[in-house]
C-alpha cells in the first residue's frame, strides 16, 4: 500500500536526499510514483520534480509576476474554479483556495 511503513520510509529518505541523488536514482523514484506516493510527501515531491528551489533562487519574483498578469485564460479559469471541489469549504465562493488556485493556474 501507498502508506505502508516501507513506502513512507522510502519517500522520506528519497525526498530528503533528492539533491544528492544520481540521475539513475531519480529515474527510479519517478517510476515508483506510478505505484503511489503517500499524501504527506506529495507537495514536497512536486517541488523536487519541478526543481522549485533552483527556480526560486534564479528568479525569486517570477511567480508573483506571472500570477499578476492577465492571461487569455483568466476567464476560463474563473469559470472552472466554481466547479473545482464545490463541496470543499476551501474552494467555495469566497474560500481561501479560490484565489490561491486562480493565481497558480494563471501563472
Features:
single chain; 107 residues
Tally of separate helices = 7
Q: What structural class should be given to the helix and strand makeup?
A: mainly alpha
**Helix and strand element order:** HHHHHHH
Strand content bin: under 5%
**Helix proportion range:** 55-70%
**Largest sheet at a glance?**
none
Radius of gyration, whole Å: 17 Å
Taken from the alpha-carbon principal axes, the silhouette is: globular
Mean pLDDT: 87
Task: Describe the model.
The longest helix has 12 residues, at 5-16. The chain is globular and about 40 Å long. It has helices spanning 5-16, 23-33, 39-49, 52-58, 62-68, 74-81, 96-106. It contains seven helices and no strands. The mean pLDDT is 87. It is mostly helical and 107 residues long. Helix 1 runs parallel beside helix 3 (39-49) and helix 6 (74-81) runs antiparallel to helix 7.
Q: Secondary structure elements and their pairing?
A:
Blueprint: H1 5-16, H2 23-33, H3 39-49, H4 52-58, H5 62-68, H6 74-81, H7 96-106
Give a quick precis of the structure.
The protein has seven helices and no strands.
Amino acid at each position: 500500500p501507498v502508506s505502508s511503513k516501507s513506502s513512507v520510509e522510502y519517500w522520506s529518505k528519497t525526498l530528503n536526499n533528492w539533491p544528492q541523488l544520481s540521475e539513475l536514482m531519480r529515474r527510479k523514484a519517478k517510476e515508483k510514483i506510478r505505484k503511489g506516493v503517500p499524501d504527506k510527501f506529495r507537495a514536497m515531491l512536486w517541488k523536487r520534480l519541478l526543481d522549485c528551489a533552483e527556480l526560486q533562487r534564479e528568479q525569486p519574483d517570477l511567480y508573483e509576476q506571472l500570477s499578476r498578469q492577465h492571461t487569455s485564460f483568466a476567464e476560463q479559469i474563473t469559470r472552472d474554479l466554481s466547479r473545482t471541489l464545490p463541496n470543499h469549504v476551501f474552494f467555495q465562493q469566497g474560500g481561501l483556495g479560490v484565489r490561491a488556485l486562480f493565481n497558480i493556474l494563471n501563472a
